[in-house]
Each structure stands twice: as structure tokens, then as C-alpha cells.
Amino acid sequence: xxxxxxxxxxxxxxxxxxxxxxxxxxxxxxxxxxxxxxxxxxxxxxxxxxxxxxxxxxxxxxxxxxxxxxxxxxxxxxxxxxxxxxxxxxxxxxxxxxxxxxxxxxxxxxxxxxxxxxxxxxxxxxxxxxxxxxxxxxxxxxxxxxxxxxxxxxxxxxxxxxxxxxxxxxxxxxxxxxxxxxxxxxxxxxxxxxxxxxxxxxxxxxxxxxxxxxxxxxxxxxxxxxxxxx
Length: 230
Fold this sequence. Notes:
Oligomer: single chain
Order of helices and strands: EHHHHHEHEHHEHEHEHE
CATH architecture of the largest domain: 3-Layer(aba) Sandwich
Number of helices: 11
CATH topology of the largest domain: Rossmann fold
Number of domains: 2
Structural class: alpha/beta
Shape: globular
Helix content: 40-55%
């Protein structure tokens, strides 16, 4: 999988860390303040949106009586402690990150989350020194499935997109990586089980643990995922 790879780019939530459970709880609490129940399919509706895009969506859909900045600040307040103390890495992720560093492969984050929460989470898990760059959708204006965040992340690492390997957990993210001209490995996550068929159709590889990469037990989903030699 890592052959011809000069940079590895990670989505955060559901991909590098196990955090989607937390956002489901926050949605219940936050919308409950305004008398709403969480509508069915909300997480899928906002899948891939950046932090600001999601706040704009909530304000419009639920007619919230607050500014976009206030919505984002509320979410940061509600989630920061969990990212800084509770959210764990996915199985095998820490060892994989440290091995990438030893092998001289550049490593970046390309996430729809906020930079504050990303930094808190990486520091909590002791892997903040494993990353060369953090790029978020708010940096580029368009969330996933647009390729912008991945193209910006590749540029920050001074790497050709064709030499980048992306790790993602949901279809919108996989589409973003593929649209950027990158190979994509899907990471199994409990909150995306109902999308497994679509995920496997879109991705080049599939793992349930990062340990599968170096044990060569990952699944190859496309006939020839590696780019042609130059």
C-alpha cells in the first residue's frame, strides 16, 4: 500500500480517532436547547461539511437565534474536554504514525473539524509530533466531497497528489480524496456501517485496524490502485 507513497493524509473523526459517538451526543444536547429532536439522517446530511459549513446548515435548518460564530463557539465548548481527555486513536494508529515518521514519509491532517479540537486530540494521544501539517476545510472554503482540502494538504507537504495516500471513513471523504487524484484507504468505523457497501465500492483499500497495513492483511479493492510509474 505504501509503495510510491511520499505523503499520507488523514481525516480525523472516525478515521484516525474514535469520536463519532461524541458528536451524536452533542447534537442531542445542543438541539434540545432549542426544542428540537435530532432528525433521522442528520449525520449523513452534514457528512463532509466543514465546521463553518455545518454551523451555517444548522442555523438555517433549525432557525437558530444565534450567529454562526456563536454556534461554533458553543460546539467548541461542548466538545473540547472530550477531545482533550477522552477521544482515543483508532486501533494501531499510533504505531502506524510513528513508523511513517521513521520511514521519512510526510504526514498531514485534512479534516472538516476545527484546528483547536484537532490539536487538542493529537496532544492528548501523544502523536502531535507525528504531523507535518494540519489543513481544515475552513482553510479552503469548501468541504468534502470537493477535493480542495486534500489538494491544499498535499501542497502544504510539497507532494504531488498522485504520491499521496488518504485515509477516510465515509463516502464524502473518499470522494474528496479520489477527486484530488489520490489513492484512498477506507477505515472501518461503527458509525458508518450502513454505508459499508458504498465505501468499499469507492475506496482502493479497506482496513479495520492500522496494524493490517504492515502485516499486509488489508484488503485491496481496486485492480491496480498504484499510479503508473513516471
